[in-house]
Amino acid sequence: MTDEKFTRQRLLDVQTLTPSLFTLRTSRDQGFRFNAGQFARLGVTKADGSVVWRAYSMVSSPHDEFLEFFSIVVPGGEFTSELARLQVGDELLIDRQAFGYLTLDRFADGRDLWMLATGTGVAPFLSILQGFEVWERFERIFLVYSAREGKELAYRELIAGLEQRDYLAPFAGKLRFIPTVSRERYPGALQGRITTLIENGELERAAGVPLEPEHSRVMICGNPAMIDDTRQLLKAREMQLSLSRRPGQVAVENYW
Q1: What is the pLDDT, as a whole number, of residue 1?
Q2: Strands (E), the chain
Q3: What is the pLDDT of residue 3?
Q4: Residue 159, helix vs strand vs coil
Q5: What is the pLDDT of residues 8-40, one digit of tens each?
Q6: How far apart, in whole angstroms, are the C-alpha atoms of residue 223 and residue 225?
Q7: Average pLDDT over the chain, rounded to whole?
Q8: Do 219 and 209 touch, CB atoms closer than 8 A?
Q9: Rounded to 5 degrees, what are φ and ψ at 90?
Q10: Which of 9, 171, 213, 218 is the one with CA 20 to 30 A from 225?
Q11: DSSP assigned state of 71
Q12: Does residue 194 register a pLDDT over 50?
């Protein structure tokens, strides 16, 4: 890969949330453009001079001067083990082009937006929620964020503070945050996997709104098994994947 395809950025900050989760913030090239919900390819140079690349969705807004990413630590993983060596000020490579289709333009209409995330799959939704468009387009927004344990529910302060931001103040009351925890009881969270909570109706009871094709638009980001299972549940409700040739109610991004 030549220098023309990527820029050299600096690591500005790393925050360890749990032994298996961390956030990283980098500088941003002035020419790097992305739509909220997209991802970038990050490269780390190994000791032998080779580069390891991995894709990460932006947590940060397209309007931020920095880029922020949310990562899981993969034991023995080639990329995260290299990343763990880096210090603030060290170099990362970032592709000049952003990728991905988990963006609001996948939907032509809709009243209620459901964002279903597992683990680090919450990242693109945080980018979308820091923008203006989603609040203006939808009457109600449901952020459903699933983790195995309560301590893995990251960015709660950011989520809680969204509607306090001056530019989002007119939309206060539109967002409903519904955390779910699968392996323990946790205060303020539903217990169980997202798929189970859809099947038994508990998710819709918590939201007070049905998941149905006329008004609901659903974005899903997480591990492939969760996405496949959730898509099947929604398909049974006549909710289809939204394609350029066939508008639908569902948009997905695999996070693995």
Answers
A1: 44
A2: 6-18, 21-27, 39-45, 51-57, 66-72, 91-95, 112-118, 140-147, 175-181, 190-191, 216-222, 250-254
A3: 53
A4: helix
A5: 999 999 998 998 899 999 999 999 999 999 999
A6: 6
A7: 94
A8: no
A9: -75, 165
A10: 213
A11: E
A12: yes
Under the banding of pLDDT at 50, 70 and 90, the label for residue 255 is low
Q: Are 148 and 182 in contact (CB under 8 A)?
A: yes
**Cα torsion for 120, 124, 129, 134, to the nearest 10°?**
-140
Element of type H or E holding 233: helix 224-235
| Torsion over CA: 42, 72, 17, 162 (sign) | positive
* 144-162: average pLDDT: 96
At residue 172, what is the residue type?
A
Please tell me the predicted confidence (pLDDT) of residue 77.
87
Question: In terms of Cα–Cα distance, which of 94, 5, 102 is closest to 43?
Answer: 94
Q: Give Cβ neighbours of residue 117 (< 8 Å, ≥ 6 apart).
A: 125, 143, 144, 145, 146, 220, 221, 222
DSSP output for 205-221: HHHTS---TTTEEEEEE
Structure tokens at 133: 């468009």
Smallest CA-to-CA distance from 36 within 204, 253, 206 is with 253
Fold of 104-254: Rossmann fold (3.40.50)
Distance from first CA to last CA of the chain, Å, rounded? 23
pTM: 0.95
> Do 3-95 and 104-254 fold alike per CATH?
no
Tell me which fold the domain 3-95 belongs to: Elongation Factor Tu (Ef-tu); domain 3 (2.40.30)
Domain locations in the chain as residue ranges: 3-95, 104-254
For the chain, give the percent of residues with pLDDT over 70: 98
